[in-house]
Specification:
25% helix; seven-stranded antiparallel sheet
């Protein structure tokens, strides 16, 4: 991997040297690269996790008309979101942070966790799913995945196992609190011993996640960020 040199500035972006080229990155997210969007009729920027220049728009996070990006300025790339969710579904149960959350849930009997993960009873979830989606709760999650947990307040499993949220690190919840619905990627099912049900946790998307909020844009754990970049590089190689 090529060495990157950070050039600090007072602007809402930084510049790094990658493969001998100077590329801008977000100040608060130096792993997110900024490129001019040549297809835009207005001043717009492409945001990407890959330093490839020119970037491949279909693998980019999305576009923004201002730097730093805001919820109003960002246009999400839905293909990127699908790749992101696929990577989380495959790898989240191997994330050291999430493994710690699952073990903490088991040791606390399924109560809310100070680590920010939050649980709800598997039995209660199955009852909720049989009743069908209930819109209006959980930030519009429609009873889907982690949104159901949000609307139910993340109540514990009481030794019966439960679910933990996989959430964006841009706004970690306070002790014992549930992440905001727009920060929740999805949920994993955990058994009473702190292991992942089925070996992988049966990941379910939340349906409420937003790439950019008032708290920032896309904050992944180091482990998941590495897995996502690996997947994006693979997709890039396939496109050629």
């Amino acid at each position: 991997m090529a060495m990157r040199t950070l050039l600090r500035t007072s602007a809402p972006y930084r510049r790094v040297i990658s493969h001998g080229r100077s590329i801008a990155t977000l100040s608060d997210n130096p792993h997110i690269y900024i490129f001019d969007d040549p297809t835009s009729l207005h001043k717009s920027h492409i945001l990407s996790l890959l330093p490839t220049n020119p970037p491949k728009p279909d693998l980019a996070i999305g576009t923004t008309t201002v730097i730093p990006p805001t919820p109003a300025s960002v246009k999400e790339n839905h293909r990127f979101l699908d790749i992101l969710q696929t990577v989380i579904g495959i790898h989240a149960h191997n994330d050291p942070d999430i493994i710690s959350q699952a073990r903490a849930m088991a040791s606390s009997g399924g109560s809310n966790l100070g680590s920010g993960a939050s649980m709800f009873s598997s039995q209660r979830r199955r009852r909720h799913e049989r009743q069908g989606p209930s819109y209006g709760g959980g930030g519009g999650a429609g009873g889907d995945g982690a949104g159901g947990a949000s609307s139910q307040g993340g109540t514990g499993g009481g030794g019966r196992g439960g679910h933990i949220h996989v959430y964006d690190y841009r706004h970690p919840p306070d002790y014992g609190r549930i992440p905001d619905p727009e920060d929740i990627f999805g949920s994993l099912e955990v058994d009473a011993a702190g292991g992942f049900v089925g070996g992988h946790g049966r990941y379910q998307r939340s349906g409420t996640y937003r790439l950019c909020t008032r708290d920032g844009i896309l904050g992944l754990s180091p482990f998941l960020k590495e897995r996502l970049v690996e997947r994006l590089r693979l997709e890039e190689e396939m496109v050629g």
